[in-house]
């Protein structure tokens, strides 16, 4: 039986970030020929036409997962983020809802970061498994 | 002149979280009689009627800042968060925008957490200064 403390510690943001780093390290050590992932469609993009060049393949996912890991490792928030405009628009949507309640905003982002990191860890493990399938090894 | 690395390290999420913890510790060590903050209106709530009991005073802010620090220190995301419903509604708003792009969602929450922690650190320092004014000491 798990203690209440052990259950809580599973929710630690630091632990979730560490698990993600480990999953990406495992992915990098397994995927020795990332180019084999090129043109393999990602399951996540079901409504994406495989012939469409803008449609991300597994190789794009591989690069994205590594880029996120680099940001996590350095814990840096780049001020010239290329997606800053998108964020600005989102923040605009949130403003009237949360501007007067910084505690709610804090909990919202902490919870959101926790959730997206858990999701990205699963994606990393899934991608590693797919590579094993491609090269014909049982994972 | 600052090096590029030094500039970047200022943006570290870990550093921002640590600065917040230090600001709250300073606040706790300074504010020996928190009850003096009761019924002192908060500048943040300009459109709030001071006679209204639901209107937060500086004492409420003091408790909120400490609660956030406890969450930061433990880095825990409570699953029975009393504001979970509010978050669910917000996530619903974000879903169509970000569901297909976990990297954007990750950067959005990382940037958001960084921004709200910087804001809360300023609020903590401001509250400590107001307490000094109340007891008649120069901060």
UniProtKB/TrEMBL annotation, chains A, B:
Gene Ontology CC terms: cytosol; nucleus
Entries under InterPro entries matching the protein: Lipogen_MT_Stabilize_sf (IPR053719), Spot_14 (IPR009786)
Keywords, sorted A to Z: Cytoplasm, Nucleus
Biological processes, Gene Ontology terms: regulation of lipid biosynthetic process
Localisation: Cytoplasm; Nucleus
Protein family per UniProt: Belongs to the SPOT14 family.
The name this protein goes by in its record: Uncharacterized protein
Taxonomic placement: Eukaryota, Metazoa, Chordata, Craniata, Vertebrata
């Amino acid at each position: 039986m798990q203690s209440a403390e052990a259950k809580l510690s599973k929710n630690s943001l630091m632990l979730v970030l560490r698990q993600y780093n480990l999953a990406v390290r495992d992915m990098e050590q397994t995927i020795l020929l990332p180019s084999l992932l090129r043109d393999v469609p990602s399951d996540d993009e079901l409504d994406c036409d495989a012939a469409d060049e803008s449609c991300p393949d597994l190789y794009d996912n591989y690069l994205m997962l590594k880029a996120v890991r680099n940001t996590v490792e350095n814990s840096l928030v780049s001020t010239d983020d290329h997606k800053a405009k998108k964020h600005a628009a989102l923040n605009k949507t949130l403003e009237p809802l949360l501007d007067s309640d910084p505690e709610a905003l804090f909990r919202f982002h902490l919870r959101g970061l926790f959730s997206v990191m858990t999701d990205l860890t699963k994606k990393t493990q899934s991608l590693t498994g797919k590579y094993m399938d491609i090269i014909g090894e049982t994972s």
